[in-house]
Design brief:
- The protein is α/β, with parallel strands linked by helices.
- It folds into two domains: 133 residues, Rossmann fold, CATH 3.40.50.1000; 61 residues.
- The protein contains eight helices and eight strands.
- It has a six-stranded parallel sheet with strand order 5-4-1-6-7-8, sandwiched between helices. A two-stranded antiparallel sheet has the order 2-3.
- The longest helix is centred in the N-terminal third of the chain and has 15 residues.
- The N terminus is likely disordered.
């Protein structure tokens, strides 16, 4: 599904493009499934992976709370360790790497804002072999749908919200961008469905390059 952008082509192109990682740049669903099933079986927890997937985009601890599971350091560490062990199952979506290189060649800066831990996100981002200006992963602040991580990325890059856009694949990504005052584009190849009021839905990673030539509208 794709929608035609309801904005004037004369609007300026973004100076900074921020991306969610899972479901946008990297197909990490096989890694997450393997890790989730391994740790839940070991812990005797009967929560299917499909229930976990519904909350993707949020920090892991927030997902546990939404699933009614006890948030413990032991369980979180077990999942992180398992995900690292299964990290070879994660791969960039076809066309993503070339699209990022083409965008960078225009002078537009790139960044990643993810709810994945920094220890797991950094190797995946580095593996794309593209110059990213910023990587924001959960710290001690609020995770998505809070705008905090996006705003911190903008501060680090000295960029106004109106000069940047965020590409995500979950409703929490759209909400975070809206609350940050940023434009948002939905990756239709990702793991979540867009909300009804959405300026632009892309069908595939190759369409990302068009975002530096034609600018999506502001938050709906």
């Amino acid at each position: 599904m794709t929608s035609q952008p309801p904005y004037a082509g004369s609007m300026s192109a973004p100076e900074l493009m921020l991306f969610d990682l899972d479901g946008v740049l990297i197909d990490s669903l096989p890694t997450m499934r393997a890790a989730w099933e391994a740790v839940t079986v070991r812990a005797g927890i009967q929560v299917p992976f499909e229930a976990y997937v519904k909350h993707l985009g949020r920090p892991f601890r927030d997902i546990l709370r939404l699933l009614g599971l006890k948030d413990t350091e032991q369980f979180t560490k077990a999942y992180e360790d398992a995900a690292i062990g299964f990290s070879h199952l994660s791969q960039p979506f076809p066309g993503v790497e070339q699209a990022l290189r083409d965008i960078a060649a225009t002078g537009c800066r790139l960044g990643v804002v993810t709810s994945k831990s920094a220890d797991r996100a950094r190797p995946l981002v580095d593996g794309l072999d593209v110059p990213f200006a910023v990587l924001r992963a959960p710290g001690h602040g609020r995770g998505k749908p809070s705008p905090d991580s996006l705003l911190l990325a903008l501060v680090e890059c000295a960029t106004d919200p109106g000069d940047a856009l965020y590409v995500g694949d979950m409703a929490v990504d759209q909400e975070a961008a809206l609350r940050a005052g940023m434009r948002y584009v939905h990756a239709g190849w990702g793991y979540g469905s867009p909300t009804e009021q959405l300026p632009l839905i892309l069908e595939g990673p190759t369409q990302l390059v068009g975002l530096v030539r034609v600018n999506p509208a502001g938050p709906a």
